[in-house]
Write a structure and sequence with these properties.
heterodimer; A: mainly alpha; 5 helices; 57% helix; B: three-stranded antiparallel beta sheet
């Protein structure tokens, strides 16, 4: 069981690039890429709040719990 | 110039050349200018002394055995003490020459072992070689760990590996030295038959040595957990 990120799907819907989003929420491109590619081990609430603010969504839209096979 | 003097000069020259080659590595520690840097200097210098010492001993004793007529020095470690009248003496005391020793020599006769005992020489060379190799790896790895600490990046996968290996090699070092003492004592017991004296083998350090080895292993676990925590931190967005 793991948490997966739907950041790439939401970025596509909002038509925003990774670089632009990273600049707006104030984290590095590398860190945002880690989140987008599901390599992140933890997400700060401050980062989650900034993402929801910029992407006009809820935390549940960004993060999804899936059962592993 | 005699062959003996040539051998001494040759040994000294090799030691100096080796020292010059090691100087660069030692100076790295000086540049760091921290406690870790100071320890790197100490470890580097220790390595130099060990290798230089090994080189000098090898050249001096081995070549002197081949090229000179002088009686070779008895390459003999002394795991035994000899107990006479409830007083313990080491074999080196007897072979030495203090006034007490002179009296003891009169009482016990000639207990010197002269000439090359090839069994003892073989045991010494094998144990010595293994110990030098193990010391080389222990000090190399210690230097790597100290270097990374000096650069303020201690929690790496490599340091976990190095400290685990240091603990393992220290264990091997202790085993080698203990086995060497046991082998020597078994052999010497057959060689030294002195009437009226009792040969008592010195004890092998177990608790102290294993405690230190355990501490080093514990340190490797600290590095491992530190590395994992650092990985978690670096993957926190």
């Amino acid at each position: 069981m793991k948490i997966v990120s739907n950041l790439d799907r939401i970025m596509l819907e909002r038509k925003i690039s990774l670089t632009e989003l990273a600049d707006k929420i104030g984290i590095t491109l590398a860190n945002l890429s880690i989140l987008k590619t599901n390599k992140a081990r933890a997400v700060r609430f401050s980062t989650l709040a900034a993402l929801c603010r910029e992407l006009q969504c809820q935390p549940g839209d960004l993060l999804e719990y899936v059962e592993e096979d | 110039m005699t062959i003996f003097e040539i051998l001494v000069l040759l040994s000294a020259l090799c030691v100096l050349i080796y020292g010059a080659l090691r100087l660069r590595n030692i100076l790295e520690g000086v540049k760091l200018g921290t406690v870790s840097g100071a320890l790197i200097v100490v470890v580097g210098f220790t390595r130099y002394m060990i290798y230089a010492g090994v080189l000098a001993i090898f050249l001096f004793f081995t070549l002197s055995l081949i090229f000179t007529d002088a009686p070779p020095p008895p390459l003999l470690q002394h795991p035994f003490k000899i107990q006479i009248s409830n007083v313990a003496y080491s074999i080196s005391d007897i072979q030495g020459g203090t006034s007490e020793v002179a009296l003891l020599r009169d009482l016990t006769g000639n207990v010197n072992i002269v000439g090359i005992d090839w069994v003892i020489l073989t045991i010494c060379l094998i144990a010595f070689s293994i110990i030098v190799v193990l010391l080389h790896w222990i000090l190399s790895y210690a230097e790597q760990v100290l270097r990374s600490v000096g650069l303020r990046k201690p929690f790496t996968a490599e340091n976990t590996f190095y400290t685990k290996k240091i603990a393992l090699f220290m264990l091997c070092l202790w085993l080698t030295y203990s086995l060497y003492q046991v082998a020597m004592s078994i052999y010497l017991q057959s060689k030294l038959q002195l009437e009226g004296v009792e040969l008592e083998m010195i004890s092998i350090s177990i608790v102290g040595s294993l405690f230190v080895i355990g501490l080093v292993y514990l340190l490797s676990e600290v590095f491992r957990v530190g590395y994992e925590l650092q990985q978690d931190q670096s993957y926190t967005v």
